[in-house]
Specification:
Layout lengths: L11 E5 L27 H15 L3 E5 L9 H8 L6 E6 L4 H11 L3 E5 L5 H8 L4 H14 L2 E6 L10 H11 L2 E5 L11 H6 L3 H9 L5 E3 L8 E5 L3 E6 L12 E4 L4 E3 L8 E2 L8 H16 L20
Parallel strand pairs: 1-2, 1-10, 2-3, 3-4, 4-5, 5-6, 6-9
Antiparallel strand pairs: 7-8, 8-9, 10-11, 11-12
Helix pairs in contact: 1-2, 1-9, 3-5
Length: 321
């Protein structure tokens, strides 16, 4: 197990099951282009073996399946069935929700307890403008079915000044009515936004969010887990919401996240494009792979920022954001 000088160790693994996505969200993809899947992606068996190795070598206890959009991957069912047998404390899925209803049976079969749905607006026109694909009603139907099935649902929303700032209060009301925890994610200085004027123009910080929400609700901050990326807030008698304030209140000093890309590369930090391939280990016997993995994990840990997120040109969808 690798532990750095700040006492950080890897506990949370985020797996980008595929780099492909059926959306082309403005804050993720440049110029509306749907970036294609990277070549030579790992198959479902290789990815499950990688998770097993990382769980044992690094002490991973929690897994989040991401993308791209994981539900469009042909290996989603096989992978979820495999990792559900590894004895991890927690497995979750992040999805845009377009194919959520179709995948609820395998989620129920494998005992999945929670999902996050990325949804930036409840307005159909704004939805198409931001996602540049998909259908809002289909996503909302999937969310309703997931709630009825007993899944714990969170919604992730990226507020942007010109695109959806008027949707913040409607989205919060929608979530509070359904017992869904909404998480606002500050726009990240990554990918095509790294050297783009759009980042400064569109950024909505935590202070602005709380001021806007405070116009309609009484809000108080509550405790969050030590390594949580989200600051948590309560609206008494109504519910809770969170803010991932990567710019306003950085959480790097307590970050326990490790990311595995769909082509078998480890990323220790979103602020670093340094990656460390483990693909060559996936054909080796367990005892040899575990031994060789330790040096790779040390290098991945060394990539972590100590204080704050500094941004990177790496595209989020490739590394399981």
């Amino acid at each position: 197990m690798v532990i750095d000088s700040l006492g950080r160790r890897f506990q949370n693994l985020r797996v980008s099951l595929t780099a492909a996505c059926n959306y082309a969200c403005t804050y993720c993809v440049p110029d509306g282009k749907k970036l294609q899947a990277q070549s030579e992606e790992l198959d479902g068996g290789q990815m499950a073996y990688a998770v097993q190795l990382l769980a044992d070598a690094a002490g991973i206890t929690r897994l989040r399946v991401t993308g791209g959009e994981p539900l469009i991957s042909r290996k989603f069912d096989e992978f979820l069935r495999s990792v559900s047998k590894l004895g991890l404390e927690d497995i979750a899925v992040t999805t845009n929700g377009q194919f959520l209803a179709a995948k609820l049976p395998v989620m129920k079969e494998t005992g999945l307890k929670r999902i996050n749905v990325s949804l930036d607006t409840l307005d159909a026109s704004k939805f198409r403008s931001i996602a540049r694909s998909g259908d809002l009603e289909t996503v909302l139907d999937g969310i309703e079915q997931a709630c009825e099935m007993g899944l714990r649902v969170k919604i992730n929303m990226v507020p942007m000044r010109s695109a959806n700032i008027d949707q913040i209060l409607p989205m919060l009301a929608f979530c509070l009515e359904r017992g869904i925890e909404l998480r606002f994610i500050e726009l990240m200085n990554m990918g095509h936004l790294k050297h783009n004027q759009m980042y400064e123009q569109e950024f909505v910080g935590m202070k602005s969010l709380l001021e806007l929400i405070g116009q309609d609700y009484d809000v108080k901050q509550i405790e969050a887990p030590h390594d949580s990326t989200s600051l948590r807030f309560e609206i008494p008698q109504r519910g809770r919401f969170g803010i991932i304030a990567n710019e306003s209140e950085p959480f790097c000093r307590t970050c326990t996240r490790l990311r595995l890309s769909s082509n078998g590369c480890l990323y220790g930090c979103l602020s670093s494009s340094r990656n460390h391939s483990i693909r060559h280990l996936l054909d080796r016997p367990y005892h040899l792979a575990i031994n060789d993995l330790q040096d790779i994990l040390r290098n991945a840990m060394a990539s972590k920022q100590r204080l704050a997120f500094t941004g990177e040109t790496t595209v989020m969808k490739f590394i399981g954001g």
